[in-house]
Amino acid sequence: MALEAFFLPATPGQRFALLHWPERACEVGGAVVYVPPFAEELNKSRRMAALQARAMAAAGYAVLQIDLLGCGDSSNDLVDASWEAWLADVQLACTWLQQRTGAPLWLWGHRTGCLLANEAANRMQCVVDQLFWQPVLSGKQYLQQFLRLRLAAELAGGDGRRVMELLRQQLRQGQPVEVAGYMLSSGLAGGLEKAELLLPHRSGRVEWIEVSNRPDAGLSAAAVARLTQWQAAGQEVRGTVVGGPAFWQTSEITECNALVQASLLAMQRAPAP
């Protein structure tokens, strides 16, 4: 397996990327683009994303990890990012990787990255398979939860409802807001709020994996409802639960080895006839 770090020219600036190649680059079985989660969830997940990318490369996949606009080592700051700019980054990564491999494309999303991956896939003209890790179903609900981090920090000093309304008013007026050390632009907040995990438009399959530390855990009720709806519409989709910690939100960096193995197994399963 080979690892290459580089900057991918983009608009504006450039995007930092990591490319994991299989040991035999001439035998690439699939091209995978990783679409990361948001804010602190991204930082907490870097270790797991690296472990999974290495495992995928060892199994014959070419894997591209990209820092989106305003994230990590890419150009600009988070306050400069918008939902559309992030969708453009995902498309850029897919085009770049496909041009170099010609292999079937996978979009691997985690949390809000699933919203981005699914919307990007729906805009493409080719078939895209998708791997979802603990997907966020509603961007509006996620944004509400994110803004509550600011609310929790200010509850001791005033009316919580008033604080939330002031934050939303700032965003509606095109002003950024600071939440837990992250400057959130109105363009990013507005796009996230409208994002919904909808039925994929293309014929690619979806592998949906959730993580739980409960021994008797099953898929969440929301996941079951969404998967049932998609299956009824003819979408090939499978849901899986693995045991392990919610590493994207733990206080310490943690690993979930069962998720790495389950992801590979899901991707390597033969498509339904």
Write the topology of this structure.
Layout: E1 2-9, E2 14-21, E3 30-35, H1 40-58, E4 61-66, H2 83-101, E5 105-110, H3 112-123, E6 128-133, H4 139-154, H5 160-172, E7 177-179, E8 182-184, H6 186-194, E9 206-212, H7 221-232, E10 237-243, H8 257-268
Parallel strand pairs: 3-4, 3-5, 5-6, 6-9, 9-10
Antiparallel strand pairs: 1-2, 2-4, 7-8
Terminal residue distance: 32 Å
The CATH architecture of the largest domain comes to 3-Layer(aba) Sandwich
Structural class of the helices, strands and pairings? Answer: alpha/beta
Q: Please tally the helical runs, counting DSSP H or I stretches of 4 or more residues.
A: 8
- Sheet with the most strands: spatial strand order: 1-2-4-3-5-6-9-10
Percent helix, as a range, is: 40-55%
Helix and strand string, N-terminal first?
EEEHEHEHEHHEEHEHEH
Largest sheet: number of strands, sense, barrel closure: 8 strands, mixed
Mean pLDDT: 92
Strand content: 15-25%
Backbone CA Rg: 19 Å
CATH superfamily of the largest domain: Alpha/Beta hydrolase fold, catalytic domain
Please write the CATH class name of the largest domain.
Alpha Beta
**How many structurally independent domains?**
2
Looking at CATH, which topology of the largest domain would you report?
A: Rossmann fold
The beta-strand count equals 10
Low-confidence stretches: none
What overall geometry do the principal axes of the alpha carbons give?
globular
What does it look like?
Helix content is 41%, strand content 22%. The two termini are 32 Å apart. The relative contact order is 0.14. The protein is built from eight helices and ten strands. The protein has helices at residues 40-58, 83-101, 112-123, 139-154, 160-172, 186-194, 221-232, 257-268, and strands at 2-9, 14-21, 30-35, 61-66, 105-110, 128-133, 177-179, 182-184, 206-212, 237-243. The strands form two sheets. An eight-stranded mixed β-sheet has the order 1-2-4-3-5-6-9-10, sandwiched between helices. Strands 7-8 form a two-stranded antiparallel sheet. It has two domains: 2-137 and 205-268, Rossmann fold, CATH 3.40.50.1820; 138-194, no CATH class. It has 273 residues and is of the alpha/beta class.
